[in-house]
Specification:
The complex is a heterodimer of chains A (98) and B (510). Chain A is an alpha+beta fold and 98 residues long. Chain A has a single domain, classed as Alpha-Beta Complex (Phenol Hydroxylase P2 Protein). In chain A, 21% of the residues lie in helices and 40% in strands. A four-stranded antiparallel β-sheet of chain A has the order 2-3-1-5, with helices on one face. In chain A, β6 and β7 form a beta hairpin. Chain B is mainly alpha-helical and 510 residues long. Among the domains of chain B are: 296 residues, Ribonucleotide Reductase, subunit A (Orthogonal Bundle); 41 residues, no CATH class. Chain B contains 21 helices and four strands. Chain B has a two-stranded antiparallel ribbon with strand order 1-2. Chain B has a two-stranded antiparallel ribbon with strand order 3-4. In chain B, a hairpin with a 2-residue loop joins β3 and β4. In chain B, α3 packs parallel to α6, α5 packs antiparallel against α6 and α11 crosses α14. The N and C termini of chain B lie far apart (74 Å). Classes of the chains: A alpha+beta (98), B mainly alpha (510). Chain A: InterPro entries: MOase_MmoB_DmpM (IPR003454), mOase_MmoB_DmpM_sf (IPR036889).
């Protein structure tokens, strides 16, 4: 990857702010993505990260204290930008392809 | 452990989506899928289509049911607690009237057309993704109708949205946009709606509406909006997969796809002009300006992110995008002034922005508002102070492509109206912009057939020659249209809040 030399393009995801569960998911994302920035719009949490953003099942489960399957992320997500590079049982990865 | 027998997401997806497909033996592939050749797109291997969501029908049903349960719990609670009384102001609902009349019918059209794709695309992956989206769009239609039907008990403008969508002048803007898409071939539709609308522009449509709902006390609309948007992220993925798939399958697809991006960016962008007017003027409590939303969701995320990614395939940012960027300081003001001038013929009301709103607009648009647009509002206010109300007398020239009245200005000159025209088969057609003229010139034989609301009135197809006759044919009733101050909604709102201390109301005291 040569993108290090130039600006690293951001990717991001917008989540519903409403629920307790979502708050834990946001916390998990912050924990797993050191460079992530979190901002708030009415009803909405906007998370952005340079280059790559990952949601890990294990971290979410640790914070929720219950099993959580990655499909459940669909209940929280409002929008995203980037490309969903991976969505399997253990993690969701958003990044640009090229 | 019994658990070791459980299939992983990848295996489940492969087993339940791809492996259920079979090859036809009684008929050829061409006979089975007759619509995927004529657009010139070449597909060599349908199995290369990827679905990152790896959604299977059981997971789909489980999570969609959960989304609906959450939404209906909110709707019931809101209705039972007389939630409509806690809105920021009755005039906020003008935004939702525009939404129900303009957007909800498009959801239904999307439902129908994705159902068509679910039958007619050759690969099982895209067929299943299209099937899910088709069901999603039907869910959106239904939840939007259910959500807003509660307000229909108390407020005007929400009763005949379906009929209005087919008839009323400003609603021909979104209607003709979608008619254009569903009368294209399946691949063009994927780029038009799946990619250009759902990925490039959807955030500009939904996020402002829903954050606006949240900020103005409209819990049900916020909830249906975000519920719909959670499906939307899947739709964005379908759109993005579609474009990457087409570009990767054959080099010859690249110029065709570029042409569609150029066309559909501008078509979709012109529809969002209505959102611009809504966002800056219809919300009593402002969320963000159109300019800010455009910079964040379009310039930063799409031009700065997505198009850098598509460069790899030789795709460039859409034609005429520089005009959209230059217009961000002007668009909402030009559109809302038009709605203000013609709202006697609309199924919502308009009013002069209050002093606080004008200050906010001046702050958000330091280069344009006070110079070009505040003087108009001062004039409109002076007319009101003198006991009148300005409405435009006469019918406007519409753009043949986007069907918006020709109210936009020359690039670089906000004081001169932009007018373009082309002659086709000896007849002159007018356009609001270079973008709309370019689209017409590519396919004149398509756009000459447009159902132009103003022309139709003059041709005697809209109930009769007088304004009351046309309004009756539109389905507009007393209380739906005109000026907000003194309207039925306004009077009811004041009556319902009469026993409260004056500070609880944000309505203008006149």
């Amino acid at each position: 990857m040569t993108s290090e030399a130039t600006d690293v393009r951001k990717v991001g995801v917008d989540l519903q702010e409403a629920t307790e569960d979502t708050r834990r998911v946001v916390e998990a994302i912050e924990r797993d993505n050191e460079d992530a920035t979190v901002s708030y719009l009415p009803g909405l949490v906007k998370i952005q990260a340079p280059g790559r953003l990952v949601v890990r099942r294990q971290t979410v489960e640790d914070l929720l204290g219950r099993p959580w399957e990655t499909h459940e992320f669909q209940l929280a997500i409002v929008s995203y930008y980037g490309h969903i590079a991976e969505w399997d049982d253990d993690e969701i990865v958003i990044k640009w392809d090229h | 452990m019994a658990n070791t027998k459980k299939l992983s997401m990848k295996q489940r997806y492969s087993a339940l989506t791809r492996d259920l497909d079979w090859e036809s033996s009684y008929v050829s592939e061409e006979e089975l899928f007759p619509h995927t050749k004529f657009e010139g797109i070449k597909i060599h291997d349908w199995a290369k289509w990827e679905d990152p969501f790896r959604l299977t029908i059981d997971a789909y049903c489980k999570y969609q049911a959960e989304k609906d349960k959450r939404l209906y719990a909110v709707l019931d609670g809101f209705a039972q607690s007389q939630g409509h009384l806690t809105l920021s102001d009755a005039r906020y609902l003008n935004a939702m009237k525009l939404f129900l009349q303009g957007v909800t019918p498009l959801e239904y059209q999307a439902h129908r057309h994705f159902g068509y794709l679910a039958r007619h695309l050759n690969g099982p992956g895209p067929r299943f993704a299209a099937l899910c989206q088709s069901i999603d769009e039907l869910r959106h239609t239904q939840t939007e109708i259910h959500t807003l039907s509660n307000y229909n008990k108390y407020y005007g403008g929400l009763h005949s949205w379906s009929k209005m969508h087919d008839r009323v002048w400003y609603l021909s803007v979104p209607k003709s946009f979608f008619d254009d898409a569903i009368s294209a071939g399946p691949f063009e539709f994927l780029i038009a709606i799946g990619f250009s609308f759902e990925y490039l522009l959807t955030n500009l449509l939904f996020v402002p509406f829903m954050s606006g709902a949240s900020f103005n006390g409209d819990l049900p609309s916020m909830t249906f909006g975000f519920s719909a948007q959670s499906d939307e992220s899947r739709h964005m993925t379908l759109g993005l997969e579609a474009i990457k798939f087409l570009l990767e399958q054959d080099e010859g697809n690249v110029p065709i796809v570029q042409g569609w991006i150029d066309k559909w960016f501008w078509r979709g962008y012109r529809v969002t002009a209505l959102v611009a007017g809504m966002l800056d003027y219809m919300l009593p409590r402002k969320v963000m300006s159109w300019k800010e939303a455009f910079e964040l969701y379009f310039e930063e995320q799409m031009l700065g992110g997505l198009f850098k990614d598509l460069e790899f395939y030789g795709i460039t940012p859409p034609r005429h995008v520089e005009h959209a960027i230059a217009e961000k300081d002007l668009l909402s003001h030009q559109v809302y002034w038009t709605l203000y001038s013609f709202s006697f013929a609309a199924a919502f009301t308009t009013t002069v922005p209050e002093a606080g709103e004008r200050a906010w607009l001046a702050e958000q648009y330091p280069d344009t508002f006070n110079t070009f647009y505040k003087p108009r509002w001062d004039k409109a206010q002076a007319i009101i102070d003198g006991g009148g109300r300005f409405f435009f007398q006469g019918l406007p020239q519409l753009c043949q492509t986007c069907q918006i009245p020709m109210v936009f200005t020359e690039p670089g000159d906000p004081t001169t109206l932009c007018q373009r025209h082309s002659v086709y088969r000896g007849e002159r057609f007018d356009f609001c912009s270079d973008g709309c003229k370019w689209i017409f010139d590519r396919e004149p034989e398509k756009y000459v057939q447009a159902w132009m609301p103003v022309h139709q009135i003059y041709q005697g197809n809209c109930g009769g020659p007088s304004v009351p006759e046309v309004l009756a044919w539109y389905g507009i009733q007393d209380g739906d249209n005109g000026e907000y101050t003194g309207s039925l909604d306004h009077l009811d709102w004041r009556r319902w809040h009469a026993s409260e201390p004056a500070v609880a109301s944000t309505t203008k005291e006149s």
